[in-house]
Amino acid sequence: MVLCLFCFQAQAQLNVSLSFAHSNFLVDEAALVTLKVTNLSGHELVLEGTKDGGAWCQIDVTAVQGASPSKLTNSPTIVPVFLNSGETISRSIDVNALYSLSNPGQYRVRARINYGASTQFVTPPVYFAMELGKTIWTMTVGVPDGREGSGNARTFSVVSHQRKEGVFLFARLEDKDSGWRFPPYSLGRVLTAMEPQTQLDRENNLYVLHATSEDSYILSQIDVANGRFGQALYRSKTPRAGRPRLESQPGGRLVIAGGIRVSESELAAQKSPTRARLSERPEGFAAPSPTRRP
Which of 69, 164, 229, 239 has the most crowded Cβ, counting Cβ within 10 A? Predict the structure, then answer.
């Protein structure tokens, strides 16, 4: 559901809307604003920026109170576009990639649309907030020998964040000595009646098991050295088995007791109730890039 939305018509040439999917984000989380532009001119238009090299769309972010954020020098470029008569384009823009938004607070966003040689349209503002969330678990560990960054200390945190849609779980990985951290990992919606379980394996990688419903559990893993992230879905072995549990065996091996792994499309399917090992990492790993924040 779109929470913030503004539309306007500019001299019957363009129809522009600016919106957020929700109004509050976790600090460092991608804060996506969606820009839609419709060509109402009756002929083809080219949005290609200004003569002095400015982009056809410029996003302005200011603080509602206090000092406004500084613009990042490595912000992505908004490329020129061609619009046929009646055509609508949509662009999702991460304002957190344009401005330094590491401080919690409320912010306003405007879009400046450059059209023609000297015409500029400025939208009224839409609002969003950056919040710290609630830290429910944290641990500082070392990177094992033989791994990239071995000997360095890394800090894991698990954070809950309240939105109108519910409570969502995130994890963080940062190197406080070096001053960098990965963007927060979104672990999904959390059933607050069941506290998430956290465990470290013998390589100091983090595992988090949390409930998204009465019989649906997500296992998330984050690699301590490179930040690789993966998830898998589990359910209880039987209706009477109770909640799946993360358990540590001698030697640091982790297992899920009382749960079986299923695909998201086959959550209710019957499978062999064998104990799932975590020695094989969940599929779908992606390697994010850390950012250095002030």
Answer: 229
